[in-house]
Amino acid sequence: MNCFRILHRCLLLSFTLLFACSEAPPVGPDAVVKVAEGQLTGIAGNNAEITVYKGVPFAAPPVDELRWAPPQAPAIWEGVKAADTFGSSCMQNAPVDRLPWTMEYLIANEVDEDCLTLNIWTPAKNNAENLLVFVYFHGGGFVEGSGEVPLYNGENMAAQGIIVVTVNYRLGVFGFLAHPELTAASPNNASGNYALLDKIASLEWIQKNIAAFGGNPDRVTIAGQSAGAISVRALVASPLAKDLFHGAIEQSAGAGLMPTLAEAEQTGQQLLESFDASSISALRALSADSLHTLHAQRAQVRLVPNIDGWIWPTSAYDAGAHNDVPMLMGFTADEFAGIFFNPDELNADAFYEMARENYGETRLDAFKALYPADSEEALKYAFSKQQQDTWAMGLYELAQHRARTGTATTFNYSFDRATPWPEHPRYKAFHSSEIPYVFDNQHLIDRPWEAADRTLASQMSAYWVNFVKTGNPNGEGLPQWPAAADQFLRLDSTIQADEILSKEKIAFYSEE
User: Fold this and answer.
1) How far is CA 473 from CA 346, 480, 493, 509, in A?
2) Is the peptide bond before 326 cis (omega within 30 degrees of 0)?
3) Which of 105, 135, 234, 291 could bridge across to 101 with cysteines, CB 3.0–4.6 Å?
């Protein structure tokens, strides 16, 4: 009798397990995943444990009357869509290998106005795994870039137990044209932030569908670098993005102010006049190639997001009004220092003349005391340090503002590791040089990486993944990262916490 009962219980347990498995639809290259618009299949990554879904539409093509309109829901499709190829990148110039950004940092596919797609890397084996989600918005000055850029490959991050998503969004004149005619046609009395609306639409799609890929829609972290980081800052401030994400990462957002809607409209009017276009409808009648070419010929007219009072209501994070989520944010030590000019060609007179223009004659002596340049080596150090400090002050001010207006933790960093590049040592830790470390993708770019770089990449990727999982980058085996508004973590061959700026420098840069 006892044997029968044991056998009966074993059979019940087996049926229970079988039933539980059948209740959780599988995820993988051989499985069909159902989303709101239809069915999808993915492909195996280079790591067979990761399934990749490429070119998944999250919005309708923004063409014809949808050019300069909020994104609309994607079309429903029949049958099973093979998500095995990246969607087109949004309209931009053909990629040109330009130092320090080699082709690994640039798009590798065709461009088209029909481009609102996203890409998913998931390690899940069924849709009940409830994995945390990392959504990455690419950089590129709001005029270039794509979710398919080689260095954004999400496999190595996904292998650490999260889902990685990269997103395409409208660029240039397609994503950021503000104009009184467009504002008047908007029920929200706003125009120009169509690319921000694209990002919000992608997050809404993720909310509805990421569970089908084994993800948790209630644990999404948004991240971005440069233009993507500025977009993250806008979404943190945006009431339209409320509850669509639960953590945010800014990589090199800087401290620049965005234009007001009125300023952006004025820029849009000037652009239309330069096009000899009488109306928005005239521009809508142009092909995407023609419109992009017109704008590319006027590259000095830069279009960016604007403070429109609707999507991006204010340039600051107002107390109680923004999305008060944990943030991880920082910059690279050299950013543009070796890109826009060569530090080796600098002299002390030019260095101090630049300071006089930026800070005024009355503050020049204080500047010289902070950045003495009485020898060639001292000048190089002073120049490099002053460039770092201007970025550090922007980070410090934002971290302090967050501490005053919210309760969520902030983790700050400075990425100090110079890319090993004997042919081009001037670039050091340049703008976007942290990307191969964050994604742990050094194998995708040809540099003479050292053991210290591989270790740092493993550590940085782990910090980012930990933040996605818990809202805190700290974890076993990693140097402690303080959550303090006046400190940051220096990420280099040695990782250590440090004050963002000295009191003397804070006082200097705080002067009007």
Assistant:
1) 39, 9, 18, 29
2) no
3) 105
State the DSSP H helix or E strand holding residue 467, giving kind and residue range, or none if neither.
Answer: helix 451-470
Contact 104, 145 (CB under 8 A): no
* C-alpha–C-alpha distance, residues 446 and 466, integer Å: 28
Name the 3-class secondary structure at 36: coil
Give the whole-angstrom CA distance, residue 71 versus residue 51. 27
Report mean pLDDT in 10-residue bins for the chain, 512 residues.
Answer: 44 40 78 97 96 98 97 97 97 92 95 98 96 98 96 98 98 97 97 98 98 97 97 95 97 88 96 91 95 86 92 78 92 88 78 91 94 89 91 94 92 97 93 98 96 98 98 97 96 97 94 74
Using CB atoms within 10 Å of the CB of residue 444, give its burial: 0 to 12 exposed, 13 to 18 middle, 19+ buried.
Answer: middle
* Model confidence, pTM: 0.93
| Active-site residue list | 226, 335, 431
Q: State the Cα–Cα distance between residues 230 and 364, nearest whole angstrom.
A: 31
